[in-house]
Each structure stands twice: as C-alpha cells, then as structure tokens.
Specification:
3 copies of one chain form a homotrimer.
Chain A lengths: L1 H8 L1 H26 L3 H33 L5 H28 L17 H7 L6 H6 L4 H22 L6 H22 L5 H5 L7 H19 L20 H20 L8 H32 L5 H15 L8 H24 L8 H18 L5 H29 L6 H6 L1 H6 L18
Amino acid sequence: MRVLVSSLARPFPRRLVLILLLALAIPLLIPNVARAAVSEEATFVFNTFAFLIWGALVMFMCAGFTMLESGSVRTKNASMICLKNIGIYSIAGLAYFIVGYNLMYVDVGSVIGSFNFLYGPSSAELDLLDGDEGALSSVVANGYSSMSDWFFQMVFVATAASIVSGALAERVKMWSFFLFTLLLTAFIYPIVGAWTWGGGWLSEMGFQDFAGSTIVHSVGGWAALAGILVVGPRLGKFRKDGTARATPPSNILVVTLGVFILWLGWFGFNGGSQLALGSAFDAVSMSHVLVNTNLGAAAGVVAALAISRTVMGRTDLFVGLNGAIAGLVSITAGPDIVDHYWAIIIGAVGAVLCTLGLKLLEKLKLDDVVGAVPAHLFAGIWGTLAAAIAGGASFGVQVVGVLAVGAFVFVVSYLVWRLIDLTIKVRVSRQVEQLGQDAGELGIEAYPEFVLMPEEFDED
Amino acid sequence: MRVLVSSLARPFPRRLVLILLLALAIPLLIPNVARAAVSEEATFVFNTFAFLIWGALVMFMCAGFTMLESGSVRTKNASMICLKNIGIYSIAGLAYFIVGYNLMYVDVGSVIGSFNFLYGPSSAELDLLDGDEGALSSVVANGYSSMSDWFFQMVFVATAASIVSGALAERVKMWSFFLFTLLLTAFIYPIVGAWTWGGGWLSEMGFQDFAGSTIVHSVGGWAALAGILVVGPRLGKFRKDGTARATPPSNILVVTLGVFILWLGWFGFNGGSQLALGSAFDAVSMSHVLVNTNLGAAAGVVAALAISRTVMGRTDLFVGLNGAIAGLVSITAGPDIVDHYWAIIIGAVGAVLCTLGLKLLEKLKLDDVVGAVPAHLFAGIWGTLAAAIAGGASFGVQVVGVLAVGAFVFVVSYLVWRLIDLTIKVRVSRQVEQLGQDAGELGIEAYPEFVLMPEEFDED
Amino acid sequence: MRVLVSSLARPFPRRLVLILLLALAIPLLIPNVARAAVSEEATFVFNTFAFLIWGALVMFMCAGFTMLESGSVRTKNASMICLKNIGIYSIAGLAYFIVGYNLMYVDVGSVIGSFNFLYGPSSAELDLLDGDEGALSSVVANGYSSMSDWFFQMVFVATAASIVSGALAERVKMWSFFLFTLLLTAFIYPIVGAWTWGGGWLSEMGFQDFAGSTIVHSVGGWAALAGILVVGPRLGKFRKDGTARATPPSNILVVTLGVFILWLGWFGFNGGSQLALGSAFDAVSMSHVLVNTNLGAAAGVVAALAISRTVMGRTDLFVGLNGAIAGLVSITAGPDIVDHYWAIIIGAVGAVLCTLGLKLLEKLKLDDVVGAVPAHLFAGIWGTLAAAIAGGASFGVQVVGVLAVGAFVFVVSYLVWRLIDLTIKVRVSRQVEQLGQDAGELGIEAYPEFVLMPEEFDED
C-alpha cells in the first residue's frame, strides 16, 4: 500500500502540475470567452431595450397613418380621421391588453391561445421588482422582459386597424368603426397571430412572415376590402358613366410627412421584429433587415414615380408616396432572408402592383380613399410570395398562408361589417356625408378659420 | 525523512488535489457569473445610452407642444407660438446649463444646490477623453456619464416651460414670456427639483414622483395658473353674461400630431426616468413603466371621449386629445410601482378630472387656451396622490409634496408675473391682440397666402 | 534519480501550492476584468445598434427638410418640394448602394475608393447569417456589422442633397434636379467622403470634421450655390432697382416642425458619428457630443433672434429658426473636442454669420429660397475653422480642407448644372413658374381646397 501510495505520490505532483496548469488554462480561457460573448443578463437588457425603443418608433406610425389619411381626405372629414386614429391606438392598446395578447401568445394550441383576461409581468419579474434577487436567474432565462414583448406586439395591432381607417374614410360612422376596431384588435388579428407568430398551425407548416406582410398588412387590407364592399363608395366618387371622379388629397404636406413618419417607424417595425439584439448574429441580422427595408421603400418610390407617367399620365406624387408604402409592405415578409438587390426588386414590383391596383380598384368601382388595399393587401400578398421566390421559403406554404389568412379575415370581417350595418348602421347619412363628418358628426372642423372652395356636386 | 516526506507527500497531493480542484471550481464558476451579469462598463454604457436616446425623444416633446399649441390658437397667433416654443427650448437649455443643474443636483442640502456657474464633465471623464486610461475605473464607478444625465434632465426643464406657453397664448408679450421662462428654468424649477430629485427635504421624507407629475407638470401648471390670473383672459373670451365664447383650434391636424408626438416623447420621459438600464431589474422596470404609460394614455383618451358626450354634449376630439395628455400626466408619478390595471384606472380618472377641469376653469372665467392647467396641474395632482392610493407611497407625504410645491411655485410665479407686469408689462396692447400677435408683434403670419374668415368681435 | 525526485518532490507541493494559489488568483482577477469591461461581442452589438438607431433619426431629417422647405416656399410650389424630397432620399439610398459607398469607403487610395457595383455584408457575416458559428469571431472582430455602417453613412448622403433642394426651390425642373441629385450622391459626395472619412489625403493630413460641417453641409451648400448661379433667381424676386421682394414662408408651423425634426435628427447625426458605443470612453464622448450639439443650436436660436432685431428690424422667427440650423451646422465639425462653453460661442457665431449671410445673398442678388447657403455653407465653413480655434485642430489643414472641398464641389457642380442646362434645361418655363410647379409641372396642388390670395406680379 504505502509503496503504492509512495510510487503514486511521486509522479502525482508532476502530473498534478501539468493537470493543474491545464486546468488553470481553462479559467484563463473562459474569461476570454466571457469577454468575447455577451453576458446572459446583458443579452436580456439588449433584447428588452430593442423591443422598447423600436416599439416606440412603431407607435409613432400611428401619427404617420393619421397624417397620411387626414391629409388625403377632403378637408371636411379630416378631424374625424384624427379622432378615429387616436381612438384606434387607444382601443387597440386596451383590447390587446385585456384579451388580445393572451389569445395570440399564451398557451397557443393549433389555432388559438388562452381566453384569460389581462396580461402582466411573470411572477419572477414581479418578485424581482419587489426586491427578490433570487428571481434574477429565472427572469433572465426568459431572454427579455415579458412586458417589453407585450409592448412591441401591441403597437403592431394598432397598425392593422389604422389601415382600415384610411380605406373607409369620409363615410363610415365613428361608433361603427370603433366597434369594428375593437373586434379586429381583440379577436380577428390575435387569432391570425396565434396561427403564425403565436406558434400555431401555419407556423408549424413553416410559414415565413418576418414582420407581417400578411399578418399585419394583409389582415388590415382584407378587413378594409370587406368594409369597402359593405359600406360602398363615397357619394359622387363614381359618375353615372362609371368613371371615377378625382379626389385629390387636401393637404399634401401632411400626407408626405405621414409617409416619412411611416418609413421611420418601419425601421422599428422590421428591425424590432428580429425580436432579439443580444448577439452579433442578431445585430448583423437587424442591420440586414434595416437596409433591406430602406432599399425596398426607396425602390418603391422610384418605380412608382417611373410607372406613374405611363399609368396616370404624369409623375404623380401621391402614387410615389404610395409606392414607398407598398415597397415597405412588400419587403416586410422576408427582409431577413433576401439579398439586398432582391430587396430593390421586391420593393419595385410591390410599388408597380400597388399603382396598377389603384387603377384596378377604380375600374371595379371600389372606393378606397387612401389606396390602402393596393398598398397593404396587394403588396402584402406579393411580399409574402416574394419571400419564397427570393428568400427560399416554401412557395406552397406561403400560398396556403395567404389564402387561409385572407379567407378567414375577409369572411369574418365581412360578417362583422354586415352585422354592424344591420344594427347600428355602418354609414353616415347622406346629409352628414355631404356636409362632412367634421361638421355633421363631430362638431369640430379641421381648419375652421380658413376659407374653402365650394364643393361641386354632380347630379348623381 | 523520506517517510515523513512520503507521509506528508501522500496526504498533501490529495488534499491539494481537492483544494485545488475546489479552487479551480471558483474561477470556473466566476466566469459563469461574469457571463451572467452585465459588466460594470457595459452597465455604464447602457445607462448612458438610455439617457441619451430617451432624452432625444423627450426633446422632441417640444415639437409636440409647439404643434399642439400652434394648432390650438387662432391662426393669427400661431407664428408667435412657434417662436415662443423654439425660444423656450433654447433658453431652458442655456439657463439649465449656466445655473439650473447646479442648483438642482450639485451639493444639494435640504432646499437648494450649488450656485456655481456652468456644468461639465467630471475631471475623470475629461481625463478619459484626453486619453488617460487610468481614469476609466473612476469614470465607470459613476454609473453613467455626467453629461448624459445633464442632457436628460435638461430636456425636462423645457417641458415645464412649454406648459406655460400654451395656457397664456394669444395675449402674453413675447419678451415678458421669455423673461419668465428664464426665471422658471434657471431658478423656480431647479429649486423644486433640488427638494425632490436632487435629494432635498421632500426626497428625504419619501416623496414619490417617478418622472414628474408634480415636479414637472404641476410646476408648469402652477406657473401657468399664476400667469392666467395676472395676464387675464383674452379679449372676448368671456361674454358680458359670463358665458365663455368657443375658441376652437384653428388646425386640428397639427394639434393631433402634437399629441402623438407628446405620447411618443413620454416613452422617453417616463422610460428614461428609470435612470438606469444596466441590469435585468432596470430593463424589467423600464418595460413596466412604458406599458403603464401607454395604458394610462389610452385609458385617458377613451374616458375623455366617453365623458365628453355628457359634459360637452358631443364626442369631442379636443377633449379626447387632452385626455391623452391627462392620462400621461397622471401615470407619471408612479408608473414603476402601480399594477397595469391601476394604470388604466389612474389614466381614466385623470382624463375625467381634466375634462371637468376644462369646464371648471370656464366657470371661474380663467382663460387657459389649450387646457394646460386641467391637463398638467389637475391631472398632475391626481397622479401624485394616486401613487399613494395605488402604489403604496405615503399619502401624507404625497399631500405635503403637492402642497409645498404648489405653494412655492404659485406664489413665486405670481410675484414674478406681477413684477414683470409692473415693469415691462405682461400683456400686448388691445390693438395687437385684436390684430393677432403674428402681424402685430412678430411681423410674420403663419399662413400668409391663405384667405381667412373675418373674425367676429362682440361688443365687449 | 529518486532522491532527486524525492528532494524535488518535497518542496514542490508547497511551492506548488503557492504557485497554484497565485495562479488561481489570476483567473480570480480576470473574471473581475471580464466583469468590468464590455465583452467584445457586446461591443459589437452596442456599436451596431448605435449606427442603426441614430441612423434612423438621421433618416427622419429628410422629413425635417421636407417640412422646412415646403413650408418656406409659396403654396403653389409646396407639392413639388414634397416630391423632390422623397425622391432625393430614395435616389440617394439607391445610388449610394449601387456605387457611392464603394467609392467612398472601399479600398480608398488617396482620392477615391473602388468602382465596384453594389455593397453588401462581409462574407463572414453571410456565413454567420447562414448559421456558421465559426464565423462569429471574424464577424465580431470588425467591431460593427458592415451594413449598419452602410445604413448610417447612407442617411448622411441624403442630407447633402436635401440642402440643394431648398436653395433652388420654385424654379428648378424636377427631372434636372433628380439628375443632379443622382450625380451628387453617386459621385460628388462620395469622392469628398473618400478624401476624408474614407481615409484619403485630407484625412491623412489630419483634417478634422467630426460629423460633416464641411463634408456634408458645405458640400450641399457649394452644390446649392453653383445651382443658384446657373438657375438664376425666381421671377420677381429682385426688383428692377435691385431690392429683394420679401417671400415669406407660406406655412410657418410646418417650417418650425421641420426645424425641430432636424434638431432631433442631429442628435443622431452627431451622436452616431462617434461611430462606436462599446466602451465608457465612447459613451462619455457621445454624451459630450450631444450636449455640445444642443448647446450650439440653442445658442444659435438666441443669437439669431437677438441680432435679427438689428439686421432685420424685428425679432424674426424665420431668422431664429435658421439660427438653430446654423448653430447645429457650426458645431458639427468638432463637437467631440470643444468644451461646452465653446459650443455656445460656436453656435452663436454661426447663427450671426448665417443671419448676415441672408442679407449678403440678397445684396448679391443670389436667390436662396430657404437660406441654405448661409445656414449650411457659411456656418459649415465657420464650424470647420472653429474646430481649430476652439478644439485644437490644425488651422492650416482645416483651411486646406475647406478650400479643396469647396473648389472641387463648386466647380464640378457648376459644370454639371451647366451641362444639364445645355441638354434638358435646368429651369421650368416662365409660364410654369408663374402658375407654380404644383399645377404647372406636377398636377397636384398642395392644398387644393383652400382659397389663396391672388399673387401680385410686378412688371419685371
């Protein structure tokens, strides 16, 4: 024994030295690793902060929609647009807090999440806020704070509803519109969200929609299209011979400002949809996404302006501005997976489709005041398919997603609009419409001190 | 000897092995800790960056106030509002640099800080900027860069002054207003700040005001109220029978844009008031704060619109927009400590108080052009008390804070306004007021090419 | 041998213990270092995110320029300004992607970079995005993601082109302007950029221009000045006796909003030009830069308002707003190296020069609609020299930079404008100019429903 021990003892120190030096090398290396990687808690902070700051920019898109729409309608309906849009954002924020988020993200099965009321921080987060340091690791393990994700998802809901507002402007009743907004943001949008971002059946099939060409923009577009069919065109928009009367924007500066605000907000919309910022991978991908977003929009403007000469007979600013929106919508499904030159093509094609769509709707006598259906629905479908064409997503699955979301949202929205019409009516009276919703329904004119042109009404 | 050695040798290596392996375990664990936590310097960067980026959004609130106010006044006074607001932000930024910050934060005793001129980076920071790496640890130990904090605090000062501008619009003289702004931002606001955020007597009592329901908004509101009393109502605002003449906003789009900008900026205002972002705790708390901020504002809009039907006889957009502001002001005292559902209640109650306050001021023949006193003072008081009701702050201390700040700011502001009136007058001439400050005092009209309605003047 | 071993063996364990304990102390210390410093990957994330978020704010400056310019021109030309500005940003973004960035930053020799087409992520980044974890270290070693830097540099290009748009408003033909924009953003600006930020000859001489007083603002100003000379003044701007006719802004609210947006965006413009955020040094420096930016602008407003009473005979809002821009341009060359009180002086002097410059241009019968040359060129030159006077840069080198950039940009721009004039003409017809570009060239009026004052034309 002793000999054995002794004989073992001797070599030990040497081996020990080697082993220990090697062992020492590990911590010497590990700190380097630690220095190289982002710590878990720093990752948590990055992810959370990205949700908050990008989410704040997405919230500002509401101001963008408000400006775009209130400058696009005739002066006599501009205040109503302002009211609707601040109402949309408020209602959406409350509805999504009370039921929407749970339906979309909590315990999602194949088609729907939980029917619980209210949403809030995790219990570990509440413990941490109450000073329990022990809850830290469990909080950090989640990757981001629960409410930062809620905040980011919430600002998306309002976007979908804003799209509807513009399409139906100048004739839909305020309370009817708010009722639809409530149902859209509390139920319709969250159900589509559960299928996809919530992890439901479309997500399991591999449906690719990075930031919502379909999930946000087409949803808004389908709901708007259903509303357009139920509500009908504005008085005098289409002449007896079927031609459309021009209804130029009443305040172009404000429309342009709105588009710039939307463009800015879209950096949050797409950039934040990376859903993480705690690694070089996420930072590289987020950069890729922002560059594609900008290239898609820029190409959309140029393509729309170029084609507008052919389609409209002149270089049309309003078409160019819609081209920016269409470019942005188009690139939104796959900005993370397509090459930069593809972003240019996708945005340009989206803008061309939008421009042609503006004409098509007129031919079909569908009255979409701001061009929301071409810009958000047509470009949204194109963008979703383009993620397959240019980005390697499955074309079949993308088609399934487009069709399933379209069928669900269009049918349900149509029924809801019809039900609203059967009960409280969707449309203001002929008198209010001619007078304008501002004076007739709201009692606040947008520019009460300015002298306006008398409006001409044809005999129709 | 050998035996001894051998006998020593034997246990030694073994214990050594154990000890060393245990010892090795420590560094193996520590890097994990290092990987889990945010490094000290990263914390410094997070904290500093949060001040800068949120501070930039708060600065943008100046644009929000400018739009809200210039759209609310009659066209003939809109340019003057623009001038006043860019002046406010400039004067506030210089005054706070030259004296304000020192009074508020440097060597604060119980009631006041230092009377030094100018503020600047710490000497360690200057050393670091000059390339002295040795200064790093001392810089980092401060937790954030000095000037990032200065920047964040500076943008708050301007907010307080902006509130006054709206209330006194359309009749206060430009230079008198600027003089008051200078005194407010150099002395009055910093003294209240020293009592509270600077660590003075109210802070020591445990006064809770997270982002300034009292410290910023009520201060502005009290100063505005004092000004309203000294300056008096606009010509013709109140008829001989005591009823108020309606003075609708002249540009509703711009008012709405202003409110959206303020809402956006408030994410910086409240989110940045976490004053830190370098830990999961801070990130979770900041998320909590942003969600409460948004819920409070959304509830404010909905509550104001709902009650406006009763109070005003119609769904009033201007009341709804003020509801957003009131909701935001109300939640600002305790967004970190109240539950989310409480944020809804607090915002809604604040908006109701604001709406009733608008009526009350009219009854009292106090002419507050944009409703700044109801939205910032009434809601500010409510929010400060609500932090006790819903968030566990001491109700008594909150009351003491509200009263002390109110008494100090109102009395000093009243005296300052009186002194200004005794010397250079606070009010423009009757002629300038009727003509409008834009043409009469400034020489630049807001919309010189547009044809405006002739204004009706009653015989009063 | 054994004895030797044994004799060695004895002391060894003890020494070993000491050595090992000391060795253990190293990793114990290293994790502390790791905890204190920002990890390499976190640095990468910070740097990248700073480019993205500040870059987004810089993009918003396009909205600021659009508002500033479209509110400054007469109503009849406001839509055209909107179109030009959304066109500028789109064209600049594509041109810089296709050729500009490569010319400016890739393989820059002394005067110019690479003539390659398109720009994209590094191959390591593409590998990382494709899931190759092995590419991480190489990606991280770059310090920031390639495309985040591209994004940040791209938004700067658009700024330079926006400056030209305002100066030449109300008479330059749309397509001629877009052609110039394309050449400016694809070639002229990138070449100057290669000399400086790209590492070329001026950079090697030690030219200091932190965020572009010369490289962005003077480039835009020189190009504008060349255009003004070629295009000539607006019809009726100068009377036969040589005096200038006042052309007041048509929408002051929008001009003011534009200036606030520019001020906000400038925090990104200058703050992001730190080009890094991954250390306490960078965070401290970025704070310094933001504070100087704000002080320079605030001092610019106050100085311009003060001097406007003398120069213009009244406190002039438009001069005050231009003072903000001039203050911002002036501080842009050295916000990192000058003390805070110097920022006040630099901004104030820049604003005074700008105000005097407005008068000077009128005397020289140069028609610069928005004062772009005084605000961007005169203040840009001053700011570049002030970086020597106040910040320790070499005065001689700064002068060389100012002259070289000025000579190159002015001469090339002048030739380009002349060539455009010889081919497709730079100027709209007399008829279109009198009618306004909105109705005459674009077919969309800015405010079609509002009744406008009939314009007076003198006999000239």
